[in-house]
Amino acid sequence: MGLEGGRVTLADAANLHTFVDAAHFIANNTGFLATKALEQLALSGAALGIALAVALPLGVLLGHFHRGSTIAIGASIVGRGLPSLVLIAAFLTVLGIGFINNMVALAVLGSGPLLTNSYDGVERVDRDAVEAARGMGMTGWQVLRGVELPLAIPLIFTGIRVAAVTIVATAPIAAIAGGGGLGDIIVNQASYRLSGVLGASICVMLLSALVFVALTGVQIAVTPRGVRRTSVVGEPQRREL
């Protein structure tokens, strides 16, 4: 905090008071905030599920056949470059206000890192390991399932974590189009005041962190032990595109 002659400035005192009020808001509205957090998780989970169902298989297949790098990289650039509000507004004309519109918009945002990382993870698997498997008489499907996917798990899960955290952290914006969740508090300062907006924002950060930690634990659990040794806390040596 800033000091003037050993005294705390009025601005610092006001900032501290705001955070104290936010902490009081969280403490006094835990049930309400928990309900809103569950709404946000439901929306985010549905969006992530759609993104996984579409982008993950496509990325894995493109990586397996070593084709479509332009599609994977382009999807990542588009996914990161499109503003969330633009996507939500674009789907309003087709899907209207509510859960479905926001779910689809958030799914588009999460598809970029999923497609890019699943493609990169499978495409960069050691070719010697793949050729050895084929030399043993394994079919293309068996090579994909038994060799490429296990070795690609760290990078694939990096994409899943990036997509999940991006969706959860962006979901509050959906409140402007009837998406619900913690965003209902953040966009309504007139009713909940600055303490409520800040308190809900802190809850969004905590929720994103919990999702990240949970998915890291899942990754460690499903990654083969030999592959796990090449990672640090589940992070692959290759970076996301």
Helices and strands, with pairings:
Elements: E1 3-4, E2 7-8, H1 10-28, H2 30-64, H3 69-81, H4 84-95, H5 99-123, H6 127-135, H7 140-170, H8 183-186, H9 189-222, H10 225-228
Antiparallel strand pairs: 1-2
Helix pairs in contact: 1-9, 2-5, 2-7, 3-5, 4-5, 5-7, 6-7, 7-9
> Which term fits the overall shape?
elongated
First-residue to last-residue Cα separation:
39 Å
* Second-tier CATH architecture: Orthogonal Bundle
Strand content: under 5%
User: Uncertain spans, ≥5 residues at pLDDT below 50?
Assistant: 1-6, 231-241
Q: Please provide the ordered H/E string of secondary-structure elements.
A: EEHHHHHHHHHH
**Level of helix content?**
over 70%
Mean pLDDT: 81
- The DSSP helix count reads 10
The largest sheet is: 2 strands, antiparallel
Question: Would you write up a description of this structure?
Answer:
This protein has 241 residues and is mainly α. 77% of the residues lie in helices and 2% in strands. It has helices at 10-28, 30-64, 69-81, 84-95, 99-123, 127-135, 140-170, 183-186, 189-222, 225-228, and strands spanning 3-4, 7-8. The longest helix has 35 residues, at 30-64. It is elongated, with a radius of gyration of 22 Å. Mean pLDDT is 81; it is low at 1-6 and 231-241.
